[in-house]
Design brief:
N-terminal domain of MutM-like DNA repair proteins, binds zinc ion, 5-stranded mixed β-sheet, 4-stranded antiparallel β-sheet, alpha+beta, Helicase, Ruva Protein, domain 3, 2 domains
């Protein structure tokens, strides 16, 4: 599933152009086609099409794993790619991908297609973006998210650190790949109760999260179990999908376990499980 670096990469290509396509900012919608009605979570597919008709794209952004298209007075379009979603810019005359769920044809002849073979992706068109992304926790690069603030937030949770980091209301943008990679770099076992981490570990973890995301962004994301976007971060994985291979730090075999129903990869030597006793420190 696309995580922060992959979604940001798609947003950047739509905004700035790339991969042989020019930016779509400024494009004006000539025609809206909803080919699979359930893809539009809000409003109705009919209202979605009517509202976007004639709209001009002002900008493209991201919040957590949501892509955000700013249509000015016509509202904000949020897109969640989920498992296999992709946004493709089509040149004039280009045939849309086979699993296109909605298509915006622009006045200049180009089009934007939401291609989604597995149908889990959704889109919203709202006036108030808070309706869709208001529940999200801070962005990992938010300057207000200091090590002290991050540590205080961790202290409030007894949950295991890995599923907590993937909880979008706690922190927005992380998924399975970048969480496993960040925990490895911070030398923290994925099943450590969040509140058992000390201030030093919290600081190290926040730095590791930012480091892996920065590397992922620089590589245009990872290309793995979802549609290929040309990113290369999969070549830099230290633990993710490397079970049985030697740990790059100590040589111990990387292990794969299930944590919070998700496949989890870690080094049992570098990431030792340490727990604390929550009942002794005030519950
Ligand atoms: Zn190791």
């Amino acid at each position: 599933m696309p995580e922060l670096p992959e979604v940001e990469t798609i947003a950047r290509f739509l905004r700035e152009g790339g991969r042989g396509k020019t930016s779509i900012v400024g494009a004006v919608v000539a025609e809206v086609q909803v080919l699979w009605p359930q893809v539009v979570a809000r409003p109705s597919p009919r209202a979605f099409a009517a509202q976007l008709q004639g709209a001009r794209l002002r900008g493209v952004g991201r919040r957590g794993k949501f892509l955000l298209l700013d249509w000015g007075a016509s509202g904000w379009q949020a897109v969640h790619l989920r498992m296999s979603g992709d946004l493709a810019v089509l040149q004039p005359g280009e045939v849309p991908p086979r699993h296109t769920r909605w298509l915006l044809r622009f006045v200049d002849g180009r089009a934007l297609a939401f291609d989604n073979p597995r149908k889990f992706g959704r889109t919203w068109l709202v006036d108030d973006l808070g309706e869709v992304v208001g529940h999200l926790g801070p962005e990992p690069f938010d300057e207000h998210l200091t090590p002290q603030h991050f540590y205080a937030r961790l202290q409030r949770h007894r949950r295991q650190i890995k599923p907590l980091l993937m909880t979008q209301t706690f922190l927005a943008g992380l998924g399975n790949i970048y969480t496993d990679e960040a925990l490895f770099r911070a030398a923290i076992h994925p099943q450590t109760p969040a509140r058992c981490l000390n201030a030093t570990q919290a600081e190290r973890l926040l730095a590791a999260i930012r480091a892996v995301l920065r590397e992922g962004l620089a590589a245009n994301g990872a290309s793995i179990d979802w549609m290929y976007r040309g990113g290369g971060f999969q070549n830099a994985f230290r633990v993710y999908h490397r079970q049985g291979e030697p740990c790059p730090r100590c040589g111990t075999s990387i292990r794969r376990i299930i944590v919070g129903q998700r496949s989890t990869h870690f080094c049992p030597h570098c990431q030792v499980l340490v727990t604390c006793n929550p009942s002794l420190d005030g519950g």
